[in-house]
Amino acid sequence: MNTAIYDSNNIFGKILRGEIPAHKVHEDDDTLAFMDVMPQAQGHVLVIPKAASRNLLDADPAVLGHLIGVVQKIAVAAKAAFEADGVTVMQFNEAPAGQSVFHLHFHVLPRHEGIALKPHSGKMEDGEILAANAEKLRRALAG
User: Fold this and answer.
1) Known catalytic membership, residue 105
2) What b-and-e string marks burial along 97-135, b requiring 16 or more CB atoms within 10 Å of the CB?
3) Dihedral of CA 132/12/55/53: which sign?
4) Which CATH class is domain 11-142?
5) pLDDT (tens digit, 9 = 90+) per residue, 17-59?
6) For the chain, domain boundaries
7) Global pTM?
8) For residue 108, which phi and psi values (nearest 5 degrees)?
9) Nearest Cα to Cα of residue 42 among 97, 111, 113
10) Per annotation, catalytic residue among 23, 44, 103, 105
11) What confidence category does residue 1 fall into, taking pLDDT thresholds of 50, 70 and 90?
C-alpha cells in the first residue's frame, strides 16, 4: 500500500468542494468527470472519485469498481463525440510515474490516426473551447 498522505487541498479536492470551477461532463454520487484545462487532445477528460485517495495505490477497491465503469462510459462517449479513431486512457501513480495532482484520476483522450498528443505544457485552453467540448460530451452521454 501507498504510505504517502492524501492532501485534500489538491486542485481536484478544491474542484469537488466547488472552490474552483470546472467544465463538468458527468457527475454521480461517487465520481466526477470534467474537461482537462490543459488538454493533450481535443476532448481530453479527467475522471475522479469523490472519495479521497492519492492514487491507485491507496484507493478503496470498492471505489475503483464504480470508477472504472465511469471511465469506460466516458471513453465510449468521447470516441463518439469527437469522431475519434481510438481512445487513450492513462493513470499515473506518484511523481516518478508522472503524477502531478495527487488525487486519483484517469485521463481519457480521444485519438485520431496520425495526430500526436500535445505536450502537457502548462498552457490553459480557452474556456469557450472547453465549454463547447464539454457540451459535445454531455450530448454523447445523453445518447
Assistant:
1) yes
2) eebebbbbbbbbbbbeeeeeeeeeeeeebeeeebeebbe
3) negative
4) alpha beta
5) 999 999 999 999 999 999 999 999 999 999 999 999 999 999 9
6) 11-142
7) 0.96
8) -120, 115
9) 111
10) 105
11) low
